Amino acid sequence: xxxxxxxxxxxxxxxxxxxxxxxxxxxxxxxxxxxxxxxxxxxxxxxxxxxxxxxxxxxxxxxxxxxxxxxxxxxxxxxxxxxxxxxxxxxxxxxxxxxxxxxxxxxxxxxxxxxxxxxxxxxxxxxxxxxxxxxxxxxxxxxxxxxxxxxxxxxxxxxxxxxxxxxxxxxxxxxxxxxxxxxxxxxxxxxxxxxxxxxxxxxxxxxxxxxxxxxxxxxxxxx
Length: 223
Ligand code: C5J
Known about the structure:
Layout: E1 5-7, E2 14-16, E3 21-26, H1 30-33, H2 38-41, H3 53-65, E4 69-75, H4 86-90, E5 101-102, E6 105-106, E7 129-132, H5 143-149, E8 154-160, H6 162-175, E9 179-183, E10 187-188, H7 192-207, E11 211-213, H8 215-222
Parallel strand pairs: 3-4, 3-8, 4-7, 8-9, 8-10, 9-11
Antiparallel strand pairs: 1-2, 5-6
Helix pairs in contact: 3-8, 6-7
The protein binds dicarbonimidic diamide.
Dicarbonimidic diamide (C5J) binds near residues 32, 135, 160 and 165.
């Protein structure tokens, strides 16, 4: 018998099977959340992302307790930048660029301090950490394979930033047949107005890309 649970969400409650739901935490890296990283280099106020940390921590704890498959992602590149499209490297108008040396090491480069996931959300053994060169977590990674091998059908997608890597991942997941729910308080943007609109875009038109909920509702449904 299929066990069905329900998450209170917009545009309507999301039913899920607890055996086949996974938590995906997108790019909660020092490079985006701390001074001296990629986010700051682009001229953003990185403190705006910090509101997502505590809700993500609580949801991560609940997901671990419920035995969910948990995946963390990191955006970044090889030290020789061979996986970074020139178009990405050349974009932006800051004084520093991807690969330049900043206070947390080379910006957006794998293995550097800034590329690490923030300590509050550090992955534990058994939780895959996927390094991605692009904005979407499916692009040039084995995320789809990992999920399909576990018959995962529903994704809880958290992380930063709402309208960039979270949104891109939700769109990619949607086209691959996954149901996605985004807990609004577990995501954040350097542009609060983009955050709001990005969430509305997900749930609009009867849930064109998925569902929007919050950490408390999801934690409640996982218990
Ligand atoms: C950005 C991300 N904003 N993780 N990356 O460049 O959203």
